[in-house]
Amino acid sequence: MGTKTHQTSEDGTIDERFRGRISRPGDARYEEDRIVWNGMRDAHPDIIARCSGVGDVKEAVEFARETDIPVAVRGGGHNVAGTAVRDGGLVIDLSEMRSVTVDPEHRRVRAQGGATWADVDWETQAFGLVAPGGVVSETGIAGLTLGGGYGWTRRKLGLTCDSLVSADVITGEGAFVHASEGEHEDLLWALRGGGSGVGVVTSFEYECLRLGPEVFFLGALYPLDDGEAVLSAWREFMTDAPDEITVDALIWSVPPDPMFPEELHGTPFISVVGMYAGPPERGPEAMQPLREIGTPLLDLSGPMPYLQVQSMLDAAFPDGDRYYWKSHYLAAFGDDETETILDFARRRPSPRTLVPIRSLGGEIARVGSDETAFGDRSAAALLSIDGTWEDPADDAENVAWVREFWDATKEYSTGATYVNFSMLEGDEASRTSFTANEERLAAVKERYDPDGVFAPVETVTVTE
């Protein structure tokens, strides 16, 4: 790129070529537009370009090329590291681009880059279809897919990125490119879990599974004192579980929510939570052993609309709370890992903090490490340390606990972290699952963004 400086708010160059809304500091909606999901991210871009369509995206990229202005791209704005916005520079915001189109005959769905999984789930379920999204419906499809994507169908269908069959991209050179198995295969490979940095994805097309409207949901909550027994039973059960079963172990405290008995509010628990991705009538028998590990505090299991399963964790992650997360792919999951995880989980400084341990295997593990940019899939489980709290005054205590927990479990790690559950600080950025494919990924980025328009964005800054 050249040495030009970016346009100031006075010259209005981008305004004259843009159909969407341009927002700058001092504008009426600037404060609203710059806010993202993680309340710890307090970035102030120079320009926020809320695109109305592909034409606007193309114009925004051309403007960035002409002016050398640093760029961030916002899809759903739900990334924990806060990379959807940046201090200074230009945010290419796809929030208004949320159209979803379903092809029921071919079991395909195409969604624009600003869509959330709630948008996709609503449209696909109208036709009895499921695209393999995440477990929080307010998450944007773009970041989840580009980082890999773990949902309740993952052992049946693989990662979200594994079901990506095509995508439309505005590259760093401002070109419109359609990536599929038949054209620009290298770009499609990179988009399957290789993170951001190759362009702005304006639409994603996924292959779907026939499922719903009801599924069998598993939700058995046990006292945290039973943690050792629950984790032992869970890991043994998942060893031979069919692909239709995805179950996670989740450590949390009962939230003050009407769906939970008031006398349990605030009670620490460990739960087995999951879904049967098949005929709902087969779920109860298949998953019954996990409901009988001990005496549950509460058992929420039963047939449930798929849309309800997809949104039931939304309330645990409200907009504006403080989020500081780290993760490890675990090489094994045995007694030592169990002991360390429970020790830290029992000392959570915030009852809002979750510690999920996600089951892997199934279809995930059948995809070779070089078949997609996502990389290694050999881990036994994914440990996520989801620090969550409300008061900025509690930042230091909660951040310190997450970091200590993460450091204490490094010895159990494969050496990789999951990019979507990471603050991308320190050595985390070099420990992502796609590190093994970094040379090939770098070559793809060089081809489609040779001038580095989509360089890495700074992340949440934590003051010691």
From TrEMBL:
GO MF, one annotated term: FAD binding
Keywords: FAD, Flavoprotein, Oxidoreductase
InterPro entries cross-referenced by the UniProt entry: BBE, FAD-bd_PCMH, FAD-bd_PCMH-like_sf, FAD-bd_PCMH_sub1, FAD-bd_PCMH_sub2, FAD-linked_Oxidoreductase, Oxid_FAD_bind_N, Oxy_OxRdtase_FAD_BS
Cofactor(s) recorded in Swiss-Prot or TrEMBL: FAD
PROSITE patterns tied to this protein: FAD_PCMH, OX2_COVAL_FAD
Keyword Methyltransferase listed: no
Domain annotation FAD-binding PCMH-type: ranges: 41-211
Extent of Basic and acidic residues compositional bias: 14-25
Region (Disordered): 1-25
Family: Belongs to the oxygen-dependent FAD-linked oxidoreductase family.
Protein name: FAD linked oxidase domain protein
